[in-house]
C-alpha cells in the first residue's frame, strides 16, 4: 500500500469502549504489545451516551419517587425536580464528554492508542484513517479483536434527515428538557427515557407497536412499570406506530401521524427501536464476511466464519448479550484466550473455565432502571415455555417483607423464582420494586453456582432488609411441594 505507514503489534483492538479497554487490559497484562483504535471517544457509548449519563438522569428521578412513601419526607416529594441540577450532574458523570481521563488510564496501563476509523484489511491486518486523513496499516502478530458495539437501528421513516429525530445518544445528552417528547418503542431505552424525561418536566407520549411494554421481561414486571408510567402522566399508545412524521421548518415542531390517523405534535421525537451492529464500514468483506452483519462467535469469542483463530468479536457486536457488564465479562475471557494462544499455552475449555463464556448462555443479569426497577437473571417464564424447559414458578409480594415496608410505605413490588424441579436449583429470577437492583447479584450467584434450594435455606438474609424476600420465596416453595 504505497504511501502508507505500517506498524506491527501483538494485538489490535478496534473500539475503545469498556469492552475494548478490558480486552486490551488483559492482553497487555499478559505481556502482549496491544493497540486500541478508536474513532470517537475513549470510553465508548457507555461512558458518554448510555450507561453513565442515562443512570445519572434516572437516579434522582427514582429517589424522588421513593420520597412519596417515606414518612417525614412527603413534602420533598411534592417539590418538582431541579432539572437543571440533574442535567449538570449528568454532564459530570459523562465527564463533560471529554475522554482525557480515559486516555490517561490507557497510558498508565501501557496500552497504545491510535485515533481514527479502523477497518479490517485482510487476515490480521487493519487500516486506520486518522482524523488528519492519513492512512496507517496495522498488522497483528496474534489477534484482532472487534469491539465496535452497536448503533441505533432506525425505522424506515421517509425524510429522516429533515426530521432530525433523537436516538438514545440525543436522549441522554440533551442540553434542555423538551416540553413535549414522543418516544417510539417499548423496550428498555423507551421506558427508561420516558421515566426520566416525564419526571424532569416533559409531557411524554410513548408509542408502542407492541401490545405491551418490555416484552422480554416477566409480564408482572412490565405491568408494574406500565401502571407507574401512566400514573406519572405518560400517554401510552399500545398497538400503534408512526405512519409519518415531519418537522416544521418554521416552529421546529414535529408533527407525527399515527397508524390510526391521529396526530401528535411534539418538540422532539425519540426513536428507540432497537440496535444494529457497527460493522457496516468495518472492512468485513476483506475477511469473507458481509458488511452490516452481527459477528457470530464461539464460546471463546473467536469469529466462527473466519479461519485461523485470529479474529475475535467481543461485546454487543456479537449479539450474545447486549449489556456493558456482560461485554466486559466476555472481554476478560477473550483476553485470556488471546494471551494463552499467543504464548502457546493449553486452553481449558470445560464449562465454567476462565476461557469459556458459559454465563452468556445461563445467567445474564439485567437491571431496567424504571419506576419501579426491574432486576432479572436467567430464564423468564415465557422463555422456559418457548424452549420446553419444565420449571416450578414461585411468586411472592415483596411489599409483605418487613424490610420493604420500612423502605417505603405502601411498597409495590413482586418477586419470582424459577426452579428446576429435577435438580432443585434456581434457573431464573425476576424482582420488580424500589431498590431491587441490589438483589440481583445474589440471584446471579445462586444460578451460576447451581446451588440447590436445600443449601439456599442456609443463606440467612439479614433482618429487616428487602433481601428477606429470598426466605419468603423458599418458604412458599417448601409449602407448595
Automatic annotation (TrEMBL):
InterPro entries: Class-I_Pyr_Nuc-Dis_Oxidored, FAD/NAD-bd_sf, FAD/NAD-binding_dom, FAD/NAD-linked_Rdtase_dimer_sf, Pyr_nuc-diS_OxRdtase, Pyr_nucl-diS_OxRdtase_dimer
Residues annotated to bind FAD: 55, 118, 316
GO MF annotation terms: dihydrolipoyl dehydrogenase (NADH) activity; flavin adenine dinucleotide binding
UniProt binding sites for NAD(+): 185-192, 274
Cofactor (UniProt): FAD
Keyword terms: FAD, Flavoprotein, NAD, Nucleotide-binding
Protein name: FAD-dependent pyridine nucleotide-disulphide oxidoreductase
GO biological process, one term: 2-oxoglutarate metabolic process
Cofactor note: Binds 1 FAD per subunit.
Keyword NAD: yes
UniProt keyword Nucleotide-binding, yes or no: yes
Record-annotated Pyridine nucleotide-disulphide oxidoreductase dimerisation domain positions: 364-470
Residue pairs linked by disulfide bridges in the UniProt entry: 46-51
